[in-house]
Amino acid sequence: MSGAVAAALALFIVLRPVEPTARMPMAVSQLKGTDEAQVLAISYDPRKGILQVGSQAEPGDGKRAELWVIPQDGVPRSLGMMAHQGGAIPVDPAMRPLIAAGATLAVTMEDPATAPHAAPSSLPVMTGKISMI
To answer: What is the extent of the structural domain holding 49?
Structure first.
């Protein structure tokens, strides 16, 4: 009897329909600079609230890249300073809704000693639109 129950349970486990896991959309952007060779890939996982940023050249002038999101209202908001070797940038929960399709990501070169900044102090060196995949 126990063998039949075990066989039925094993058959159920093997043959049961597997429901696909729901995928949450991911935001991606490819930022381009004035130089066509200058490209930066960024992805955002909304479940974890983490931006993954590719590596970039270090300017060598004491400034560092600061990442900005510019939503539909046109007001840039700092997402934080970026390391030249790339990596993860945690996004403040209040900023997460701004990372949406159609918003712009921009990079400016800023003084790291006074970061984060309320507004960019220079024109962007790279920009790109956010797409959802």
So the answer is: 23-132
